[in-house]
Please model this.
Amino acid sequence: MTDPKSPLRSLFSSVKLALFLLIAIALAAIAGTVIPQGSAAPEFAARLTPGMAALLQKLQLFDVFHSLWFLVLILLLTVNLVVCSWSRFPASLARWRQARSPAPAPEGAFDRLSPGNRILVTGEVPAVVAAVETRLRKRFGPVRTAPGRDATVLSAQKGAASHFGVYLVHLGVLVVMAGVVLGFFLGFEGSLQLGEGEAADAVRTKAGGVQRLDFTVRCDRFVLEHYAGGMPKTYRSDLTFLKGEKVLSRTPVLVNHPVTFGGYRFYQASYGTIPGGGATLALRRNGRAMGSVEVGVGAGFDLPGGEGRVEVQRIEENLMHMGPAVKLLIRTPGEERPLWVFQYLETILKEQPNLFQMMPMLNPSGFAPYEFALARLSPRYYTGLQVARDPGAPVVAAGAILVVVGFLFVFFYAHRQVWVRVAAESGAVEIAVTGKTNRDRVGLEREIASLLKGFREGGVG
Model:
């Protein structure tokens, strides 16, 4: 690759190759956005034909950003940018060195100048030259003065660093890709399920492994709010982060409002119910309401009349597809009687009128003179957290800043050179201004107009 004319170097310094790779990476990013990735992929794949699912799996389209071919595209673009920048940088450096100091006016620069680029002022030529030099130095920096027999030409320039704007963009892209590769090898994504009051110091990764944390995370409370129609409105987890017994942080995690701690990012992803929730039982004796009681599995309460004690053995959300139910065991000195109490008993009896005759233990009035009713269940929730660590994220952010700064240099920062000729003209002094720029000719014309306005209105001479 030392031969500048070698085919391999020509290939990797080609702008066409860079455009091809950028388009390929953009298409890959679109595919990774449209096709569900990671943990969401199996559900999507189940809706496809087996052949299509197998094809997408083989092409690694269910995990685009961690696929081998995506990494190869990133590496090829990296090589392309390095070779391209290396080939063109010496010429840009030479232009910058040449442009750092004001250059003399080109031959014939003032020959065909329009009248709008000339003004007449009163005063002596030396005084006008001094005033013009002062104004140019304030706006451009160092000024080169070339006295002549008939006229004095002053030269100034600014924006020589604009020649490096494209290299800032290249450097930014390289830093972004370095961050992507860093996240590829050192980052991970996983999930964590915690019931209320539970804690964990390890996360199950997407690859099926276990990632140990150097701290403990605990779910103190899970809050679920519903709309009037019953649909979930919002849900959040109140988390505590601990080191041993020491509380380091307490913070809520909501949907679209992740929390960062210890280099890990925690997202509220899902929720569900787990065994161990509570229930509210209503109690009647001889047809008279005796109040209600909150119970959980293993808990119990004494009957108001002292006949015995009621223990809760099971709480089911949907027993035999008949809805929520609670299994009670009534203990008396003479017997132990099990009873199942359903929440939607009236609906069940409409469909099965002879249910109590076939299964007496489903009769909530089976222990006279009491009648039990299940008012509601108070489920115990778990929170589903998505956990991610990407050490390349700050590197990507730094690269993005470099890209933005580079584009600002490329599109809004031009190298401008101006030349001002000061000469005696019919009892007055003529000031003529011309210039040159590597881009944004309109901006240069505005700059020249502003200079002339300043010379005219600023008391030059």
